[in-house]
Amino acid sequence: MRDAAVDSLRALNEVVKRLRAPGGCPWDREQTHASLRPYLLEETYELLEAIDAQGVATLREELGDVLLQVLMHCAIAAETDDGFDVGDVAEVTRAKMIHRHPHVFAGTAVGGAAEVVVNWERLKRTEKRERLSLLEGIPSALPALAFAHGVQKRPARLGFDEMPSTTDALDATRTALERLASVAEGAPAAPARGQDWTVEVCRPAAPLEEAVGELLYAAVALARRLRVNPEDALRSRTNRFVDRFHVLEEEARSDGVDLHDLDQAEWRRRWEATSRPR
């Protein structure tokens, strides 16, 4: 690491400590690990957006915002008798990376990236001896697609895959779709226009919700077999809808049309028009 980079990191850490110190910022001084949770989440999502946008300046800024959150949590932890500081965090991570890369630091021979992944899971298990399940450590608070992806991937790394081939995943997806079609008659009626979708108003029948879950779970497995990240794929598809809907809105504004006044036929006509070359 460049000396200047070390100096910048140290200077930023000193800023954070000053904010937390007596006479520092009243807002920063009252923060806790728990109160900072939403800010860490928000900054993480902003970082992910910057990665998608592929802008160097924005990426640098958003990485800095996440780094600030890390330093703030370290500063809070350091204020307790049994706490730790950013140096302790760095040392734990350094030791962990060395232990999980024996093919780099200890002369262990590996046959390729796949074997590295298998070794990683084995070594990780030795570090987490208190864990009784391979699935422990996958945050259940992850978005559902990412959670399903992680749950499927962890055992697959060690040799167990519920849907071990693309054909198996395709068959499971077809079966789930057929089952969903068979129970779709239990779907709630469409709400009246202007009525918000709520669980109380439109709570689906349990078999219907289960069938949708099976379809989504199988779709995640299929995406994994195809080496596609389902979270990224769905986000990309959703963004295509967003872009197209923005075109619809712009054209409606240009025509002096209030979208609230459109009937279903006009909505459909305008939507189909956005797919034509402009």
Outline of this structure?
By secondary structure, the protein is mostly helical.
Identify the notable features of this structure and list them briefly.
Helix Hairpins; single chain; mainly alpha; 278 residues
Cα-to-Cα separation, first versus last residue: 51 Å
Low-pLDDT segments, ≥5 res: none
Average residue pLDDT: 88
Q: Choose one word for the global shape.
A: extended
CATH-defined topology of the domain at 3-99: Helix Hairpins
Q: Report the total helices.
A: 13
Major β-sheet profile: none
Give the SSE string.
Answer: HHHHHHHHHHHHH
Which homologous superfamily in CATH is the superfamily of the domain at 3-99?
Answer: MazG-like
Q: Helix amount, in percent? A: 55-70%
Strand content range = under 5%
Tell me the radius of gyration.
25 Å
Strand-pairing-aware structural class:
mainly alpha
- In the CATH classification, which architecture of the domain at 3-99 applies? Orthogonal Bundle
CATH class of the domain at 3-99: Mainly Alpha
Q: Oligomeric status of the shown chains?
A: single chain
Number of strands: 0
InterPro entries: MazG-like_dom (IPR004518), NTP-PPase_MazG-like_C (IPR048011), NTP-PPase_MazG-like_N (IPR048015), NTP_PyrPHydrolase_MazG (IPR011551)
GO molecular function: nucleoside triphosphate diphosphatase activity
Keywords: Hydrolase
Protein name: Nucleoside triphosphate pyrophosphohydrolase
